[in-house]
Specification:
The complex is a heterodimer. By secondary structure, chain A is α/β, with parallel strands linked by helices. Chain A has 8 helices and 10 strands. Chain B is of the alpha+beta class. Classes of the chains: A alpha/beta, B alpha+beta. At the A-B interface, strand 4 and helix 2 of A face strand 3, strand 5, helix 2 and helix 3 of B.
Chain lengths: 256, 94
């Protein structure tokens, strides 16, 4: 059965979204993205080095015709900065999609959800497709949705921590209430974490460090691909209920 | 004419943004330009006349996940932090 992720009429080939930071070079980035089967890749917006123009361009390795380029506002600590980066990103890119981050604290990189909500409201009104990186807070998820977010992206655990889904119960509550897709962003450490997110019913997961920081990023990218597919299929298949005691699966009838 | 480009002093005889990008060897389709905090549409690259003292930002896409791209690199994958993560995981019984 068809099970394509569609957000505001845009079809997504994969439920695994990939961040492109921390790779050794662009070549490794491109190989990891290919192995992951992802079609959304997040990128950051930074100053062009005007004194050294020989540096390579990421988009030479990730063709925007082949992949959906999702710019982020990583590193922005204020609403003003997030808006500025978003508007620049739209002009540099090919779409209205923005992965919105308003970071509240350097040590935790937790979102400043008050600023995030303000920025979401403004950008949604300007026609952006806003993907806000938020806490695993069901109330904030609803507020972001009401403010016009195209999806909500609750964190599983702090960015780059690899701790997995620290509060699957909250993610479940978010999922039950959400009318927009829910994409777990941040915290995935290994394949099973991604599977758990998908088994809960999340629409997609965004992973960067777990792949880029693995000993073999290409192999981990492929592992994540299968993890996300497996988790999604299990969610749709419907798991059995947990029980304390055994239930035999072989028939008693016909025994000697 | 003296400008500020990406935070640095820059002298040019060029009149438009398009010419300026050309002088800097930058492909206009791959960047976004902001002049005095206002984002310029690509169509405006040839219309906007550069003025003495203009502050210009030229940005493009780089590899990035989340958080501050440079700031978190060491924080996330240096060994001491990894050690710390493991201590936390172990104390949580994982």
């Amino acid at each position: 059965m068809e099970d394509t992720l569609i957000i505001r009429g845009i079809e997504f080939r994969s439920r695994l979204w990939i961040g492109t930071g921390k790779y050794r070079d662009f070549e490794e980035t491109a190989r990891a993205v290919e192995a992951s089967g992802a079609d959304v890749v997040t990128v950051a917006v930074r100053r062009v080095n005007i004194t050294d123009r020989k540096s390579e361009n990421l988009l030479d390795f990730l063709d925007p015709k082949q992949y959906k380029i999702l710019p982020n506002t990583a590193g922005c600590y204020t609403v003003e900065d997030a808006l500025r980066y978003s508007r620049l990103a739209r002009e540099a890119g090919v779409s209205d999609m923005i992965k919105l981050e308003v970071i509240g604290d350097e040590k935790t990189l937790f979102p400043d959800t008050i600023g995030l909500l303000k920025a979401t409201e403004i950008l949604a009104k300007e026609g952006f497709m806003v993907f806000p990186y938020t806490n695993d807070d069901p109330i904030m998820a609803r507020r972001l949705e009401d403010a016009g977010a195209a999806a909500v992206m609750p964190l599983g655990a702090p960015i780059g921590s690899g701790l997995g889904l620290r509060n699957p119960y909250n993610i479940r509550i978010i999922l039950e209430a959400a009318k927009v897709p829910v994409i777990v962003d941040a915290g995935v450490g290994t394949a099973s974490d991604a599977t758990i997110a998908m088994e809960l019913g999340c629409d997609a997961v965004l992973i960067n460090t777990a792949i880029a920081g693995a000993k073999d990023p290409i192999a981990m990218a492929e592992a994540m691909k299968h993890a996300v597919i497996g988790g999604r299929l299990a969610y749709r298949a419907g798991r059995i209920a947990k029980k304390l005691y055994a239930t035999a699966s072989s028939p008693l009838e016909g025994m000697l | 004419m003296r400008l500020t480009v990406n935070g640095e002093a820059y002298c040019t005889e060029k009149n438009t943004v398009r010419e300026l990008l050309g002088e800097m060897d930058i492909v206009p389709e791959r960047v976004a330009v902001e002049i005095n905090l206002k984002v310029l549409k690509r169509a405006e690259y040839t219309e906007y006349k550069l003025q003495e003292g203009d502050s210009i930002e030229v940005v493009y896409f780089v590899g990035g996940g989340r958080g501050s791209a440079e700031g978190t690199r060491n924080k996330c994958i240096n060994e001491e932090e990894q050690e710390e993560v493991w201590k936390i995981r172990l104390s949580l019984g994982e």
